[in-house]
Structure formats: structure tokens, C-alpha cells
Amino acid sequence: MYPLPMVTAVPVDLVSADSRAAFPYALALMHNTILRGLNQAHFLARYLHARDRRIAAYLDYVTGIAELAEWLLLAEDRVFGTRRASGRTPREALGPECAPDARALLGDVRRLGELALAYYERRQDYDGHQIALMMSFGGELAARMQKQVDCLKPQRLAKVFTQDEMRRAMSKHARWFMSRPDHDFLVPFLMSHHNRAETMQWPFFSRRDLHDMHRKEQTFVDTWKLAPYNVRNGEPQEVEGPEKNNNPYE
What's the farthest any 2 CA atoms get from each other in the chain? Predict the structure, then answer.
């Protein structure tokens, strides 16, 4: 199952493209940050142990990924489940495959976050095998994400949304999502899990967020050393191997 495949979508210019063509591409980019996070967390679970000095940063990482995955699913439900002036929701107009029910997956990601938090509070009990097992929903999540993006063809969206309506829906999706998770985690997470070789036009951040990037990075500074990309320059980075004989509980 792991590593999870990335979601593929037709790349477009996110600044100038029709919003109905931009939405599935932007959604795929967002999905891929979550999938890269799960891939990295699953990989690290195989060899980090309770004695490793990075275990607290790792458990912050897993907890944050679970929270972001939860809020992404909830944000999509708001966009596709909100009744429009026509009396129908976008889910009803586009079909359920464009906005699959996420209740089972929400339960899975919440349980992952709860387990990581429990281990954070009692790090001597940490079991990477259990963390990896709790990520078994990853294949289903990746398949759901790809199926959804495949469904959201611009021509199909055009039957339901005007350009302005789609733009407003995208803005609503982004505002609601950005309003929930901890920005000190969210902003550096997206910067360290987005492949900038694909596009430099995403993610979208306010000037305030970018101006405050250094402070945000410092809040979880050790966590970003575990990420697939350098939070500052976007270059791929490797994580050092496991540590030995470093047990803070002895």
C-alpha cells in the first residue's frame, strides 16, 4: 500500500486559467501534500523508536497530518454539501463520486491523531508498528482523492458552476480550511510537502503568512527536519537514520 501514489491532474496556470479548470488541479496539489505527509510518517514509523530524541517531533508531525487530513475532508464536505440557490447541493448536481462520503475516513484519521497524541503523552509506550497499522486507511484515501479529481472535469463543473461561482467556492474552501488548523503548523507543512517543481503558483498564502514564515517555522522546527522537502528552499531532503542508546526515560 505504501508509498501512496500521488494524485494526478491536468496542470494549468492557476492565475489565468478558468476557475473550473484550476479547481481540480489545486485540489490535487492539496491532496498530494497530505499523501506525502502520510508516506513520510509511515516510512519514519518503521525505524524511529521511543529512545530517539526526535520522537516528540515525529509525534507532532503525525498529529498535525491527521488534523490537516480531517479538516480537508470537512472543508470539501462544506463546499459540496452546501445547498445552492437552485435547491440542490453540488454533490447532488455532480454526482456522489465527485464528493464521496468521508465519514469512515474521518474516523480513521481521528483515531490516528488520538494514538499519536497518546504516545506523545507517554513516549515510553511508543510503538511505531501500531502507528503504521493505524495508517492503513491511506490506500483508500489516495484512491478516493484520485477518483474525485478525475470526476471534477472542467466541462462537468461548467454545468453546475459559472466561473464566478467556482471562484467563490474555491475561496470559501480555502478560507474555511485555513481558518481551522494551527497556522504555525499548516503554513510550513504545505511549504515542506509541496513539490515546487510542479508549480510555484501554489500554495496560496497571505502576505502576513509569508512575512511571518520564520516564526511559524520555529514553532515546530524539529518537525520540519523530518519533512520530504526543505521548508525554506523546497529542495528534497533526507532524514537521518535511527539513533541508538538515547533513552530519556532511563
Answer: 65
